[in-house]
Amino acid sequence: MLKRIKLRTLFIGGCITLFFLVLVARVFWVQVLNGEYWQEKAAAQWAHSATIKAVRGEIEDRNGNVLASDVPAYTVVVNPEVIAEQGIGQEVIDGLHALLGKPVDELKKLVEAKDEKSGKYLKNREIRNEGWKINKELKDKVVAFYEELGKKHDIRETGVGVVTEQKRYYPKDTLAAHILGYTDRDGKAIMGLEKYFDKQLKGTDGKLSYQSDGKGIKLPNSQDTYQPVVNGSNFKLTIDSTIQHYIEAAMQKAYDKYRPKSISVIAADPNTMEILGLANMPTFNPNKFWDPNQDAAGFYNHAIKSRYEPGSTFKIVTLAGAVEEKLFDPNAKFQSGSIRIKGYSKALHDINRVGWGTISFLEGVKRSSNVAFVKLGYEMLGQERLLQYINDFGFNEKTGIDLPGETIGIVNPDPSIAAENATLAYGHGKVLVTPIQQLTAVAAIANGGKLMVPHVVKEITDPNTGKKTVTQPEVVRQVISKESARETGSYLEQVVADQVKGTGRHAYIEGYRVAGKTGTAIKVRGTDYDRNKVLSSFIGYAPVNDPKIAVIVIIDEPKGEDGGNGGGAVAAPVFQEIVSQALPYMGVPKASTETADSTSKTVKAPAPAQRSAPDLTGKTMQAARQLLIDQGFDFEAVGEGTTVVSQYPEKGTPLASGQRIYLLSQQGDKPVIPDLKGQSLRDALEVLSLLKVGIAVEGEGYVSEQAQGLKNGKTLVTLKLNPVNEYGENIPVPAVEEEKPEE
After folding, report:
1. In a 3-state reduction of DSSP, which class is residue 686?
2. Which of 48, 459, 656, 735 has the most CB atoms at less than 10 Å from its CB?
3. Is residue 579 within 8 Å of residue 551, measured between CB atoms?
4. How far apart are alpha carbons 714 and 349 in whole angstroms?
């Protein structure tokens, strides 16, 4: 008996010992031999990471109006498992169908979704696309629906919910859609500025990694890593929402009236080439880019992508070249109607094939005579010099505008084919241009001969550092001289001002001096021109003496009774409507104009290039202000009184274009010093002398800074001067290489 007990004890002890040895061996295997593997497995379970989503940068117009920003969005989700448990599937399907408009059969698949392998109901399904990133108004209706469903069945979980996310929102809908572009629901940038500056706008997501136990409590020795979020940069554009609205409203009227294939309009400040507005029709709503009812053609940005035969608006280049080369004599005569080119059997005709008899070249410009421009461009300039001016005005290169997809124009006449070079002078044949190229070229006429780079971004601000990057005006080259640009502008002004002969008379704006040119390009079908299909255009700027805005209008294949009448009748009124609203909005005063003949109301004479200062001394400040506003003078009132006690310049003094008049009234204890920046030293000294203040001057040139202080109890104004280049202050112009003499 005792022996049996001992054997049993030994057996049990041996089993325990063997088990212990096996356990020790297993522990050794796990912790020593495979320790590294299990350490990694454990670390993976302890490790947790979170993504900190970067905020996409805002896009604003030049005045701070938000054009694009991230806003909360809501996605509707359903839980098939809970819905099945509660037995409310059909009610959920019917309710969400009524709210979201999603087809019943598609909702049924989502609500009753099961795992293919296990056959169990799934837990969470998003309702795309109808319930994906919806707005707050619709989200509130969905919440009200499932809360009411819960009360009806006395249940807490209905299997319907809403997840909060972010989406891109464009508060002004279609306004400036082709500039902004859009991002899709996944946040991917598709077109426009959104795509061009996507990297800067989207920023970089942040990350946080840490270690915790099974309950989610952070471990004491957690090895944390943190990558800070870098939010996207904020963009301020050169676009003015109000001017953009004027553009799109005028376009819509023309689009409804003429039912064309498309309309494109671009407006810019010709002095800086800041784009003030850009639009195409048809257009699209970036908030509803997914809507199948939107016209696919509306997503195409014709303003920078489409090439077309320009027609007579291209004559501006020929005219500018002839003026620069001293070849244009406005009073010289020629026979209009038709002209024959050596080496070409057919005659080239004016739009009025019989012509207007023997007329002056100035009248030829007003009437847009093709014959006049063949003589100017082909016979006088010659094909080599004409092509050189075309290249100098940028028609064989991209403008460099900061928008994606810009197309380059093509001007490639065969040097051996006379007709191709002759028709080039009036914008037909081997010449294709883009709207932005043409606007950039005419802006060079307006700003004194500088070809500049157009841009839509005014400044970029990094919200992480506060650093601000401002886009500076960029001059490509000086194309023609200031004098030639001014002279060319005076001829283009008469195209609009002459209400009898001027093809641009429908662009005339009472109180403002407007320069412009019409264009009517007959489109090619096969190998011949189809006179039933035209491209009507108008390009111009205002005011001529101090240009603030340049606009191009292009209407492709206008229809209806007036559709075939050309750019003067179809496109010029669109220009007129836009600019007549934009100039007063921009604070540009009207200039007084008189008719050339007091008995006639049809021929408007342009305002004189140089005027004299009116007599304002002794008038009330209110009366003097009104007189200057009505007559289009630039002025500044100085002082606190109600009567003008003195003025500068004095009455009768000839004024340079844009020169300011200062009105001085009774001063208080401390004289009010006007803003003199940009004024010549002479003008600044005259004004300050009238104010009887002390003056200190540093440097030479024009006033760049001013400071006010006291010296011996008397007001002292310190003026800092800087020279300006001949093309305009703070706008660098590339140096022109000197031509080497021919050997």
Report:
1. helix
2. 459
3. yes
4. 74
User: Which residues lie across from 538 on neighbouring strands?
Assistant: 518, 553
CATH number at residue 451: 3.40.710.10
pLDDT at 742: 34
Sort strands 468-470 and 475-478 into parallel, antiparallel or unpaired: unpaired
pTM: 0.72
| Strand 694-699 relative to strand 714-722, pairing | parallel
In a domain? residue 527: yes
Residue 132, domain extent: 70-167
Work out how many domains the chain is built from and give that number: 4
Residues 6+ apart with CB under 8 A from 36: none
Q: Is 680 a catalytic residue?
A: no
Q: How many angstroms from the chain centroid is the CA of residue 652?
A: 43
Residues in the chain: 743
What the block records as the tokens of 537 is 């255009």
Q: At 636, which helix (H) or strand (E)?
A: strand 634-638
Residue 214 has pLDDT above 60, yes or no: no
For 497, the 3-state DSSP assignment is helix
Q: In 522-566, which ranges are continuous DSSP H helix?
A: none
Catalytic residue among 312, 368, 369, 536: 312
Q: Are residues 388 and 264 in the same domain?
A: yes
126 membership: H or E segment, kind and range = strand 125-126
pLDDT digits (tens, 9 = 90+) for 508-532: 999 999 999 999 887 766 666 666 7
Interval 206-226 mean pLDDT: 63
Tens of pLDDT, residue by residue over 19-36, are 777 777 777 666 666 666
Residues 81, 363: Cα–Cα separation, whole Å = 83
Question: What's the distance, CA 272 to chain centroid?
Answer: 13
- Nearest CA among 257, 243, 258, 306 for reference residue 280: 306
